# Entry
Amino acid sequence: MRTKVTPLFPETALERILEALERELVAATDEEILEAAHDLGMKPEMQGSAAFLGLRYPGVPRREEFFDPQWIARVLNDPRRIWLASRSLPPGPEAPRAPAAHRSRARPAGRRPRPPKEPRGS
Amino acid sequence: MQPLVDARVLRPTQMALALELVTEMDLLRLKTIARLHARGLPPDTGWEDLLQEALTRVLTGARRIPERIAPVAFIAGIMRSLRSEHWRRAGGARARHAASDHRVYRTRELALRDTAPDPERSLIATEELEAIERLFADDSIALRIIDALGEGLSAEQIRTTLGLSKTDYDSARKRMRRCLLREGLTCGPK
# Structure
């Protein structure tokens, strides 16, 4: 009889792992939390600790709080806007030109050392 | 300029603290759990949104805490269900979008029968699994435990499969907890 093989989808594995890790964090003791915070240089026992950012105090604002992510993606990927933005750039110092790859080097005509003339009438 | 968040009004986390629903240490514990569950969610849904929404549901009475369950465990469960809710809604929206794109008439029964994994969700899940593995990259036992957890093994089965004593297993769990707490207490995005 053939064994029934159940495929393991990554999302299923992730959900299981997150649930197990959640249980671990729920079971974490206060001492473990304080130790981890001290490892990061935080002092949760003090007033205004960075550990409480987003909990007791407003957290660091995110770009998505101000702009719609789809709008941001549309604006950034719009070729017309990229062209306009590049046109409006102030003129900067010109970069030194790279030498042409296939141009042959100019021969220094007339600079080739000629052999000394032999003295006449000798 | 008007601030986006009204600082004169208590946030759900502050309210839960004022009502002694949770302690300060519980809030830190919940922060690490919220950061864990915010993994793979779109950038406009952060850990703060998950936690504040979960606490709002408790404070408004939309979700009632059973007597025998610790508030932290219950709130963590709400955050987990909020995460699942997000994926359910995202999957439904994507299926409707695909159906309208291909101009195919899909009945409700057909939509329910479609159990194929969503490729976008699979990709995000794979990336998050890799991120979790990177978190425990220095700890080979923790990595093997993570793999076993992904396969749905229980603690006893993991110990038997990996040949770990109870002490080894518990110390590995402690190392994993510390790593997760450190990662969860940082002030970075998500």
Chain A touches chain B through 48 residues (CB under 8 Å). The mean pLDDT of chain A is 76.
